[in-house]
Amino acid sequence: MTLKRCQECEREILGRTDKKYCSDMCRNNYNNRERSKEHQIVRQINCMLLRNRKILSRLLTSKVSKISRNKLMEQGFHFGYCTSTYTTRKGETYLFCYEYGFLELADGQFCLVKRAEQY
Ligand SMILES: [Zn+2]
Predict the structure, then answer these.
(1) Helices and strands of the chain, counted as H and E runs
(2) For the CA atoms of 53, 58, 60, 64, what is the dihedral angle to 10 degrees?
(3) Each residue of 25-62: pLDDT tens digit?
(4) H-assigned helices in 1-119
(5) CA of 25 to the centre of ligand 1 (A)
(6) Ligand 1 center to residue 67 CA distance, Å?
(7) 40 CA → ligand 1 middle, Å
(8) How far, in Å, from the CA of 4 to the mean position of ligand 1?
(9) Where are the domains of the chain?
(10) How far is the CA of 12 from the centre of ligand 1 (A)?
(11) What pLDDT was estimated at residue 109?
């Protein structure tokens, strides 16, 4: 018979062999910690998305509708974090952070837009 140990405190588990934890307290501690790790990941990603949205919104409010990749990154923009895409009939794909979007142009600049229609 193999010895089973508690996933939380690593104490030997007595009794049923399908148990993962030695006690309810250990099970709760383990699950709470896992949940808070997950929440942290979600919070970090949400934060990146909101920051991207804020940057695009600020630029468009100050009438900037075309900007270079470097200028965007200087502002703290992270290209990997978007909420949706939109491909036009011409085959151009806009990336969106909520209602604000951008499209890479042939000259390497980015065209900024705000989506007006419903989702
Ligand atoms: Zn335990």
Answers:
(1) 2, 5
(2) -120
(3) 999 999 999 999 999 999 999 999 999 999 999 999 99
(4) 24-61, 69-74
(5) 8
(6) 56
(7) 24
(8) 11
(9) 24-114
(10) 8
(11) 96
> Which tens digits make up the pLDDT trace of 54-95?
999 999 999 999 999 999 999 999 999 999 999 999 999 999
Question: In this structure, what token pair is assigned to residue 68?
Answer: 């270079």
Q: In the structure, what pLDDT confidence band is assigned to residue 118 with cuts at 50, 70 and 90?
A: low
Q: Are 53 and 95 in contact, with CB atoms under 8 Å apart? A: no
Is the predicted pLDDT of residue 101 greater than 60, yes or no? yes
Strand partners, 112: 102
Kind of pairing between the strands at 109-114 and 100-104: antiparallel
Edge-first strand order for the sheet with 100-104 is 66-68, 109-114, 100-104, 93-97, 84-87
